[in-house]
Amino acid sequence: MMKQPHSLPVRNPTVEEQATKAQQHTVWRQEIRDWLLAYPFTAKLVMRLKLVMVVDTRVPTACTDGVNVFVNAHFADQCSSALRRFVMGHELYHVLLGHFMRQYGRDRLCWNLAVDAEANYRLMLDGLSMPSDAVFYPAQAGRNAETIYQWLLKHPRPEMDVPFDLHGDELFAPASMDGGNNVLVVDPDFAPLPVDTDTARQITEHWQEIVMQEAQQMSPGSIPAGMNLVVSNIAKPQVDWRTALQDFFLHRSGNQLTWSRVNRRFFAQGLCLPGRQGKSLSIMLAIDTSGSTRRQLPVFIAELQALLTCAEHVEIHLIECDADIQRERVVNHVQDLQDIGSVEGHGLTLRGGGGTDFRPVFERAKDVMPECLLCFTDGYGRTPETTPNFPVLWVITENGKAPASWGQVIHLEMTYN
């Protein structure tokens, strides 16, 4: 993050810049109308977004909050017709794919690259021209952002890749000053909606309704390939296990991410920060150490880590078990989970590996009384006959089965569309 001096002056857009904003708004709105001829389905959806031209240090290119698309007017003035369509399509896909509600606590740069790659693949399927420096990883073509993110962690290349726009925590940090004059340009028209987790989900559901309404009016075969994937997923939804995991925590932790409006006192630091609302969270995590679970453990731990980072404080009672409890410890720092999920053999080593019996785990949970118990397992093991009086989530590995008739169940999948 670029650090700025503490006494940087702040100015509003000049009269000339306001004129550029108005002129570019007219140009871009006409572009969208022209786009209707070649891509009516996409263009109609783009028209549902409010186009807002700004001159603001925090928006070097473009960004969206799910309702508005903010475009830097100076950047807009340099765009060709093809690039204008790419920008609007790119932001639209961020909205339709729910990218602004999926970051959680992930590394910001890697997440921005991952969602750009997912969006750009859809644009390629739609036949849109992309800039030569657009983020795209052929080895990850067709994968979702979460899968690409995990791949990027193992194949980092930040010195080569630059995300087109920004999403998630610290959404709009100044990338450059006003023509090198060390002045922060602040446009009152840049007023992204304060979106918490529930609102973000409502926006996504609203867009799903819009997509289906537009799809019903289209003739067969007239929806571009990338957009058709969106339509198909809405028509026949498949709840990703990551979404189910997020919902489980949100309903129990009370944690929310809240975006605040711009506060000038943070400008000197070059930051526009979201607020966090949450509480301390106590969970018990029981890991079945049988050999069949170890391949998928890193994927689950990485997702759990990202979710728990959003809580103010986490206390994790970590239990390694097979036929009995082999080891128990308390983890107070979410980052310590990374060693548990390591596939390189570094850090913490899981103990056990025999047959599985969850009854000792549940007896221990009665003493600890966590807010929830997560059991990572293939499902082949003995469980208590009676339902416990605390929430239980069974995280079942691929080809596993639910071990009990009670508790919530999510199934991990190792391949994604």
Automatic annotation (TrEMBL):
Residues 283-413 form the VWA-like domain. Residues 1-21 are annotated as: Disordered. Pfam families: DUF2201, DUF2201_N. Residues 37-275 form the Putative metallopeptidase domain. This is VWA-like domain-containing protein.
